[in-house]
Amino acid sequence: MTDMTDSQKVQKRQQPKLLLKWxxxxxxxxxxxxxxxxxxxxxxxxxxxxxxxxxVEKIMTDQGRxxxxxxxxxxxxxxxxxxxxxxxxxxxxxxxxQTRFGTMAFSEQQMQLIxxxxxxxxxxxxxxxxxxxxxNVQSKVNPGELWLSERLFSLLDVKEGDIVAIGDAELKVxxxxxxxPELSFNPFSQMPAVLIxxxxxAATGAVQPGGRVQYRLYFMGSDDKLAAIxxxxxxxxxxxxxxxxxxxxxxxxxxxxxxxxxxxLILVILMATATLVLTCQHYTSTRVETVAMMKSLGASxxxxxxxxxxxxxxxxxxxxxxxxxxxxxxxxxxxxPLADILPDPLPDMGMSPWLIxxxxxxxxxxxxxxxxxIRLLDAPAISVIQQQADRPKNNKAYALLLLPVxxxxxxxxxxxxxxxxxxxxxxxxxxxxxxxxxVLSLLRKRKWGPAMTLALSRISRSPLTTGAQLAALTSSxxxxxxxxxxRSDLLADWQQTLPIDAPNVFAINISAEQQPDYLAKLDQExxxxxxxxxxxxxxxxxxxxxxxxxxxxxxxxxxxxxxRELNFTWRETLPIHNDVLDGNWPEPxxxxxxVSVESGIAERLGLSVGxxxxxxxxxxxxxxxxxxxxxxxxxxxxxxFYFIFTPDVMVxxxxxxxxxxxxxxxxxxxxNQLGRDYPTVSLMDLRTMAxxxxxxxxxxxxxxxxLAALGVLSGLLLVMTLLRLSMAQRQQEIKLYRTLGxxxxxxxxxxxxxxxxxxxxxxxxxxxxAEAIVxxxxxxGFEMPPQWHPMLWIMLPTAAIGLVLFIISTMLxxxxxxLKS
Length: 821
What we know:
The protein is α+β, with helices and mostly antiparallel strands and 821 residues long.
């Protein structure tokens, strides 16, 4: 074998460089740049949403644990076993004990029923405790100290340094509780709280065998150690675990927002994937002759793979850099509206968004790009001079689809919302494609002008191609509508459940004698308030004569409503904010021993209209017949009840009264005056919580709007890609029309008619599909009542026609340009 000449050596050294230049030119001039745009969009969206969801989840966990004052809490009706403390110490967990009990507090002038929290000096393990005296603020309770909630100073008529007796112990008032992490938002179970040290419990003598005492053990540590302590100590009767998932009023809002984030991410990936597949198929169709020519010149399949691999590597690298950069900026943009409620510093998002975005892009790109490229490389060399329409296809390439399918099975798991969405999209698209073909078939039977007749003939010539085009155009418009409608429905639901004028103060324990004067005082101060509700604590014990308490031996396995006393009320009419689902509430003169039941408890206990229920109030049994089932929105901060009786059932039983009202920021003096004028009435001030929730909803709404806009943009990109590729494929056909003598005007009218008709049909079908999918998601995924969107039936078809006509107008002149004489 002879040695290579210097010229051959130079050529060999220059081959990689020349190949790189060719690949770069092919990337930007060979229709690969739309593929890069689609990949960039996928990477950017996945990164931004994964990063935001990761931060939000960590923030939710931290905030939930701060409200708990620990990472995990064991609540028990019996003293904590020493063995549990030893196990926690062996695991390296930090723990703190607390004892809670109700008792009377006595000052020189007054007495008041209070809730005592006896804590250790290391309480709280999480969150902030602020105890304020005249000189400073401290964060720990020391032995011998007594800290009072602010309203106890007026209720007991004491000041700092005075003596208050709690049981047998006389303690000096150390100051007020300015802030504590543990919050309860149940207005029916509020007693003013005091903090003492665990060391002083014995001196009070208030904790006696058989008394109503609650013991709590707080834990802080890693998740695996918390799981180990839960496994070590199975729950006994009278015990329960509290974690961040079982606490927090805003959890449902955040959870739904997180669901929307995940769902929008999936829809954006679907649309970007469709764009990727379409652009890649178009690229391969334009490169068949190039590949055939290379094969005819002696290029091997291996060399062609090397040539294409270089292009794909450059494409993926550029897409990764651009996508991660845009995704990082997008994540910043998405959380800008949340700046006021996010902690500073933000929790680290970790490496998962970077890895997840690249992994998803690969899973999408491997089949999306790989399948058409494998088929491209199978193009025979003779294709350079003759199209091989019937050449065999490499069906083995479709095995690449197993990668994203397997990943979806692992990722989605038992996520009902995701599977419902994907299944719904597939079913709806198949039905709508068939429906579109039927409509086109019916239109062909009518008489039209020459241009429309030609357009209908062109559309109907290939049912499979037309059905695919209609399905693609419909799906892009439909997914675009789904993203925006879900956002609108979520925001509307949140606004209805917590309107801007929602009550933020509850007055409870109002005596029957005080009730008229109290309401008159509110009216005098022009404070909007609810009606007054009588409240009696009681239990449901029987259904149709069957004792509910004997059906389940273990009290902890019973429904929550059977394990505790509930709040009963009676009225002549049902509250206007409750919707009757079944039965009816009788007129006052016909209301005889009836009760209206909240739908949730009715479903759990199997109650229906006509059932006779047995109740017990202060050891006094009575019964009532279910006359209606009501839907109750527990999130609206209005007075709500499981059971509402007709007046004849309970009117003779002693009750206290409840009223809710709204206090604005400039009316603090009114609240203080009410506390002084009615010292026995308990005021539950929820203004801080209500404003926090309102702010959170406002900020989350902005983030969802930004996200929805991103989804809409990805949908528009898919529509534009679809139309441009379709128009590009029509170029040869337009040349044929001109060759046969068709005028430019006739061709334009035919194209306008064809695509305008398809846009109208696709727009209408997209509305039907979007309404169906959103209704299913809202009802079974987000558990909200479905809504009708009449404006969508006008806006989406109009927008579809406008978008299609705009894109055609930008391309038609270019398609006709080469035919000018």
